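Ops channel
N.P.: pipeline sanity check, posting one input/output pair.
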């Protein structure tokens, strides 16, 4: 575990370590491009019972004409027969700065669903964090702003995925590498990465060497949260567990390695163009499916005439206002219709 001498002192300035800042500055385009792949794991209990699934993918993208990386991560399943899940969608700069991130967590209890949403967006020289929690009592919202100059060495939950993949491919972790992160209450805290070394894991029918990395996020109010992640040499995630959780995420089947000897053994097939319009079976299926969807959509619209009125109102209001940010405008317009929001009151109104 993390050296207790490294724990945060209340009077100590909250900042990232020098080697953590140098690590981010040393990341090149090649390092990030080597992380453009998808992971897919299953969540199992201690007894081996399948509880859910986990997936994460990184692709190149553009955000406000800035070249960046887009991360999608999802985890859904049941813990102690309680449905729960987490999803993250984020745009990340080449220096692992968050341009925009949406983080959603939910727990479906017997009589209510607890929703926790965090929206982070970079605006000018600051990071704006909007947090909302929906419970039986209603929706609680908070907004915090952080000057970017104060966030040197900051790593969000999204950029953490890229940090781990890069470290796994380098097969080493600098000693006591400490970043700034948000804890579960979106309070600025420290997160520390530590190498766990190598071990073997059965993946499919093969025994594979995997490299482990520990990440601990400290909290001002609660106990630290610690994750153990093990990776294959190419950076693919092999297992992930939060210490204290009754579930673990595991890789069931070996993916093709991205580099190394195994890459030469990937079978190569001649690419043949698929002209589905000329394939009678595919074209017939296409027409059948097309008519099926049209009938289904028409039926739904007939059963819900309010849909046309709602969309007409939205488009009319949109064209009158002509907002620059259509997504934010749509979110605020439809917020009062959300089941978790108090009637006739948007999230912005409650801030």
């Amino acid at each position: 575990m993390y050296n207790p001498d490294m724990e945060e002192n209340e009077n100590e300035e909250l900042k990232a370590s020098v080697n953590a800042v140098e690590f981010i500055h040393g990341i090149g385009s090649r390092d990030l491009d080597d992380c453009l792949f998808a992971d897919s794991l299953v969540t199992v209990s201690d007894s081996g019972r399948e509880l859910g699934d986990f997936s994460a993918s990184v692709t190149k993208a553009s955000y406000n004409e800035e070249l960046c990386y887009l991360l999608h991560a999802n985890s859904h399943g049941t813990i102690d027969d309680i449905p729960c899940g987490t999803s993250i969608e984020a745009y990340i700069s080449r220096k692992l700065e968050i341009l925009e991130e949406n983080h959603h967590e939910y727990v479906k209890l017997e009589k209510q669903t607890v929703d926790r949403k965090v929206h982070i967006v970079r605006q000018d020289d600051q990071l704006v964090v909007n947090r909302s929690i929906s419970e039986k009592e209603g929706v609680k919202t908070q907004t915090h702003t952080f000057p970017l100059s104060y966030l040197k060495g900051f790593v969000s939950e999204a950029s953490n995925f890229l940090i781990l993949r890069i470290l796994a491919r380098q097969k080493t972790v600098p000693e006591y590498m400490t970043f700034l992160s948000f804890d579960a209450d979106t309070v600025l805290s420290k997160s520390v990465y530590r190498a766990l070394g190598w071990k073997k894991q059965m993946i499919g029918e093969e025994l594979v060497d995997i490299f482990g990395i520990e990440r601990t996020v400290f909290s001002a109010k609660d106990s630290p949260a610690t994750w153990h992640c093990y990776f294959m040499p190419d950076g693919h995630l092999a297992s992930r567990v939060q210490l204290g959780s009754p579930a673990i995420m595991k890789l069931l089947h070996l993916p093709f390695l991205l580099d190394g000897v195994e890459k030469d053994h990937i079978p190569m097939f001649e690419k043949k163009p698929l002209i589905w319009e000329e394939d009678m079976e595919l074209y017939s299926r296409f027409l059948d499916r097309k008519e099926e969807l049209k009938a289904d959509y028409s039926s739904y619209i007939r059963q819900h005439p309010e849909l046309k009125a709602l969309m007409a109102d939205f488009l009319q209001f949109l064209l009158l206002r002509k907002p620059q940010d259509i997504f934010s405008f749509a979110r605020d317009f439809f917020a009062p219709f959300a089941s978790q929001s108090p009637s006739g009151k948007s999230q912005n109104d409650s801030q």
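N.P.: looks fine end to end. The chain is about 25% helix and 40% strand.
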